[in-house]
Design brief:
The protein is α+β, with helices and mostly antiparallel strands and 332 residues long. It is built from eight helices and twelve strands. The longest helix has 35 residues.
Length: 332
């Protein structure tokens, strides 16, 4: 094997190992549902690798045998091996089908858990609306692109889409789940360890499909409760002149036509709710980190960052932009 080929094989091996780690590693599950899927995946990877090696060995042996000429006995032996191979293949496919059905049934096991946390996940082009419904409207939490869940507790996720078909895939917690317009669906998941797990839209949904991600933040129960309580509060009134100017810029501009900030006159629902925007980790459905520089660039020209996004450009004077950024950063 040449040095170039060795390098390619080594690169593939490294890529495979890297794929087993990180916030999107499907083979490194952090919950029971993803664990079932990973178990089936590992069985297929290992067993098919063994089968592949055996097939290569048999073919190699056959080629060596052909060099010495064919005979009636060798032809009969070949037929027997073909029959055995077909039988083994059929048996393997039956086993694989049984395991696949078993895993599929196991994915609904959490639906029997009592007192799950209920969360609505709504797909938009190209962002995720997250709602924690409550009987009292003032206790309902609405956020975007961040799904907070308590560790060790079953979460019932009710999915829907307002425009086209999307698909929610959180590799370390569950498999791919489609969001079809006018066809709400439900699935359950649980995180068995704290951490931040990245989710993606896994169904092509338009120009910015590749930039439609979300973060699943699994927290200890006490931390989740504290986050939820903070999210129920309306936005605080700005305490300094700069942030007050930023709030005026926000409310007197085009922002309220699409966004809501609880505690102000902004109540639109076309875009993400910004009541606690400053506490979020990313901008534009996990396209950018939520930093001051990124936020300024996003406000001025979001199409430069995410072409086709529904948010228009906002040519705001520098002093007003600085105040607006300060206001949004303070929404925590």
């Amino acid at each position: 094997m040449t040095g170039g080929r060795l390098a390619k094989v080594g690169g593939l091996a490294v890529a495979a190992l890297v794929g087993c780690e990180g916030s999107q590693a499907a083979l490194n599950p952090a919950g029971p549902q993803a664990g079932r899927i990973a178990g089936l995946s590992w069985f297929m990877i290992v067993s098919l690798s063994v089968i592949y090696i055996i097939i290569l060995a048999v073919l190699f042996a056959g080629l060596i045998g052909r060099r010495h000429g064919a005979s009636d006995e060798s032809e009969a032996r070949l037929v027997r091996w073909v029959i055995i191979g077909v039988a083994i293949t059929t048996g393997y496919l039956v086993v694989l089908m049984v395991l696949d059905v078993s895993v599929g049934r196991g994915l609904s096991s959490l639906s029997e858990d009592e007192d799950p946390l209920i969360v609505d996940v709504i797909g938009h082009q190209w962002w995720w609306e997250i709602v924690y419904p409550a009987r009292e409207p003032n206790r309902t939490v609405t956020t975007a692109n961040e799904l907070h869940i308590p560790v060790g507790r079953t979460v019932r996720i009710r999915t829907s889409s307002v425009d086209v078909i999307h698909s929610l895939w959180i590799p370390r917690l569950h498999g791919k789940r489609d969001l079809v317009p006018d066809h709400p669906s439900v699935f359950h998941l649980r995180a068995d360890e704290p951490g931040i797990f990245r989710g993606e839209c896994a169904e092509f949904c338009g120009l910015q499909h590749a930039h439609m991600s979300l973060l699943v933040i699994a927290q200890p129960e006490a931390e989740f409760r504290a986050w939820q309580a903070a999210q129920m509060r309306p936005a605080e009134e700005p305490a300094d002149i700069i942030r007050r100017l930023g709030m005026q810029t926000f409310l007197n501009g085009t922002c309220p036509m699409c966004h809501a900030v609880a505690g102000t006159s902004a109540a639109a629902r076309a875009g993400p709710d910004l009541t606690h925007f400053g506490s979020r980790r990313t901008i534009g459905a996990a396209t950018l980190d939520n930093s001051r520089g990124n936020l300024g660039g996003w406000i001025l020209d979001p199409h430069h960052i995410k072409p086709g996004v529904n948010m228009p450009a906002n040519p705001i004077p520098a002093d007003r932009l600085d105040a607006l950024i300060s206001y949004l950063e303070g929404l925590k």
